[in-house]
Amino acid sequence: MANHDLQQRNNPYDVTRASRIYLLPNLMTAGNLFCGFVAIIKCIQAHLITDCGEYAQLNPNASWTELYTQAMWFIFAAAIFDFLDGRLARVGGRTSLFGAAFDSLSDVVSFGMAPALVVFFLVLAPREDFQWFRELGWFIAFIYLLCSTVRLARFNMITKSMFHYQEADCNKDFVGLPIPAAAGTVASLVLLLLNLANNSRELRLWALALPFLLVLVAFLMVSTIRYPSFKHISWETKTRLRTAILAILVGVMAWQLQELVFFFLFFGYIIYGLFSHYRLGVRYAQMKILHRKVVKISKSSSE
What we know:
Order of helices and strands: HHHHHHHHEHHHEHH
Number of helices: 13
Radius of gyration: 23 Å
C-alpha cells in the first residue's frame, strides 16, 4: 500500500502532481510571458509613431527604431527566461503538466505573436511602398503564428501526453525547429536591419527578406528535421580546450558585434539542422542501395 501511494505521488500524470505550481520554474515562465507582452506593446507603439501623427506628437522623444529594438531585446530576454524555467524544473525535479502547459502558452505570446507582429508592422503592413503586401501580409504573419502554435502542441503531445516515452528519447533532439530559435532568428535579423537604418542605410529592400525568412522558419518548426536541444550541457560538461577558447571568442564577438553575431548564430543553427538532415538522408539512401545489392547478390547466388 505504501509503495502504491509513493508511485502515485511520483507519477507525473497523477492529478495532484500534474496540477502543482512550483514557484521558481513558473516564476521564470511568468517572466517569459511578461517579456513577450512588453515586446508586443513596444511593437504597437512603434507602429503608432510611424503611422499616427497625433501619437507621434504626444511622444516627440520616442523613436520607432528604438522601440522596435527594445521589442527585439525583450524577445531575447523571454528566450533566457524560457531556458531557465526548464532547467530549474529539471534540476530540482519540479516538472509538472501544469508547468509544461503554462510554458507553451507563454511561448505562443513571446515567440509566436510578438515576432509575427513586428514583421507585419515593420514590413508587411499595408503601405504605399508595398501595395502587393496589402492582401498577403497578414496571411504570412498568421502562417508563422499558426505553425508556432502547432509546433508547441506537437511538442507537448510527444513529451507530456499519454504516450510514455522514455526521458532519454525525448531530450536528445528537437523534432522541428524549436520556437525560441525561430523567434530569435527573426529578432536578430530585425536588429540587423534596424542597425542599417540607424546608420542611414536603405532599409526597404533589405526588409523584404523578412517575409521569406518568416515562411522558412514557419516551415522548419512543423517539419521533422531534428535540431540539437543542448539539454545535456551542464556545469559538469567537459570539452576540449580549443572548443572552450572558441566559445569565449564567440562570446566576446557577440558582445562587440551583437546584431551581426546573433543573426549568424541563429542562422547557423538553422543551416546545421538542414545539413544534418540532408546528410542523414544521403546515408539512408546509400544504405538502401547497398541493401538492394546484397539482396540481389544473395538471390543470384541461391539460384
